[in-house]
Design goal:
There is one protein chain. The chain is α+β, with helices and mostly antiparallel strands and 428 residues long. It has three domains: 51-148, Roll (Nuclear Transport Factor 2, Chain: A), CATH 3.10.450.350; 152-247, Roll (Nuclear Transport Factor 2, Chain: A), CATH 3.10.450.350; 267-380, Glucose Permease (Domain IIA), CATH 2.70.70.10. Helices cover 22% and strands 35% of the residues. The strands form five sheets. Strands 13, 16, 17, 18, 19, 20, 21, 22, 23 and 24 form a ten-stranded antiparallel sheet that branches. Strands 3-4-5-6-7 form a five-stranded antiparallel sheet, covered by helices on one side. A five-stranded antiparallel sheet has the order 8-9-10-11-12, sandwiched between helices. A hairpin with a 3-residue loop joins strand 6 (132-138) and strand 7. It is globular. It starts with a helix and ends in a 15-residue tail after the last helix.
Length: 428
């Protein structure tokens, strides 16, 4: 009986010790653990700051919009309570960095405004193109900075087959107009792109410039295979020391002294002819030019280097520019909506430079470019004239060229054509 009593006391004592130990060591540790977990959860739900154009914008009202027609920077800033004196200072300070008078319609801008009823602008960001953006700050001190996004160059390829015409194929494949124009320029004097045959095929390897995963332009074409009427054509880029030019698989230049088309590849609405019924004058007469139908404002480019002989307005021609390229060739561009800034008589222009914009000034029923061509002082059909080719690969560069060509042909051969389907063709 005495032993049982002592055993009971021992059990009670042990339980008491256990309670003390739990209270002293386990419970505080458990509490600390739970508190730590709560702190972790609280930290996890803390909101990350919102970053825009490299700035924390949590304490601002962010307003995004596009420049409207005839809208000026001052109009925007006045509407958001920026003082007129400060606006004037902005226009003066920024002129050496970015001329605010050159803001253009449909370009994006972003305002960072105070979070109050007045919504006074503290920062304006203007994006003239996908790569650059200009930050105007109106805080404690006026500041204007130009920033550039990182540009990544990605090599891509595309293959297609002409179903009816190049324009339709381009649309189906989602090829950009910029890439199309570079393609047409390279083969412009070898292939009549207005008369492609159904079944013609092409493969393109090109470099695309991307910003944040979005295409912002074509850097260059790295190779072309083009099958026209069953005949193969190659374009191999090669630099002989004077910059990249394009050559066929025999080392002959694919280019001529002048570009074939003075405008982005588009529909020819009227060709050179000695007898055409004039849509305005309502009589038959010679049409000594080639008409390219295009929307108002489409850039017009000079087909070669030269000196501007005339840049003015005349009743029949409307706004026009005439360029003398050398002692043999002269070209003229009619019915412009306007002549490009800085283009005037005596100006030197470079091949591919924009000299004006499509319009319907003068004797014209709709927007188009009338392109005229002189050889030795006589007007001729610009699309039929035979121009001398550029220089072929030089003898001391032939071995290097052949290696570049062989490597390129292997890459082109590895690109499959789209499978034959009755549905629209698919791009790679």
């Amino acid at each position: 009986m005495q032993k049982k009593r002592w055993f009971g006391f021992l059990v009670i004592a042990l339980l008491a010790v256990a309670v003390v130990l739990v209270n002293k060591y386990y419970l505080p540790t458990l509490v600390e653990t739970e508190v730590a977990k709560a702190d972790t959860v609280q930290q996890a739900v803390v909101k990350e700051p919102s970053i825009l154009y490299g700035m924390v914008v949590d304490n601002y009202t962010v307003i995004e919009d596009k420049i409207k027609r005839n809208e000026r920077l001052g109009d925007i800033l006045t509407a958001y309570n920026v003082p007129a004196k400060l606006i004037h200072q902005v226009s003066l300070i920024s002129r050496s960095i970015f001329d605010v008078r050159k803001i253009a319609p449909n370009k994006k801008y972003t305002l960072l405004c105070n979070q109050d009823s007045a919504k006074t602008a503290q920062v304006l960001v203007y994006e003239p193109n996908p790569i650059e953006y200009i930050i105007f700050r109106f805080g404690d001190s006026l500041k204007v900075d130009v920033h550039k996004r990182d540009v990544v160059i990605v090599e891509k390829n595309v293959a297609g087959e002409i179903r009816s015409n190049l324009s339709e194929t381009i649309e189906e494949l989602g090829i950009s107009h910029e890439l199309t124009n570079k393609f047409v320029d390279i083969f412009g004097w070898q292939v009549d792109f207005q008369r492609l045959q159904k079944g013609d095929k092409f493969k393109l390897i090109y470099e695309e410039a991307q910003v944040e995963g979005q295409s912002v332009g074509i850097k260059q074409i790295n190779g072309i295979y083009f099958e026209h009427f069953g005949s193969p054509y190659y374009a191999v880029p090669f630099d002989q020391g004077d910059g990249v030019d394009y050559f066929d698989d025999q080392g002959r230049s694919t280019r001529k002294a002048l570009l074939k088309y003075p405008i982005e590849f588009t529909r020819i609405s009227s060709r050179y002819t000695m007898s055409r019924f004039h849509p305005v004058q309502k009589r038959w007469k010679a049409h000594l030019g080639t008409d390219f139908a295009a929307p108002v404002g489409t850039p017009i480019r000079t087909v070669g280097d030269g000196i501007v002989e005339e840049a003015q307005y005349k009743s029949n021609n409307g706004n026009y520019v005439k360029v003398r390229h050398n002692g043999t060739y002269t070209t003229q561009y009619l019915h412009m909506s306007r002549i490009a800034d800085g283009v005037r008589a005596g100006t030197r222009v470079r091949q591919g430079q924009t000299i004006g914009y499509v319009g319907s000034t003068g004797l014209a029923t709709g927007p188009h470019l009338c392109y005229r061509f002189w050889r030795n002082g006589v007007q001729v059909d610009a699309l039929r004239v035979e121009l001398p080719p550029s220089e072929p690969v030089k003898k001391d560069h032939v071995a290097d060229f052949n290696k570049v060509k062989d490597d390129l042909i292997k890459k082109l051969e590895a690109i499959p054509f789209p499978e034959q389907k009755q549905d629209p063709i698919a791009s790679l």
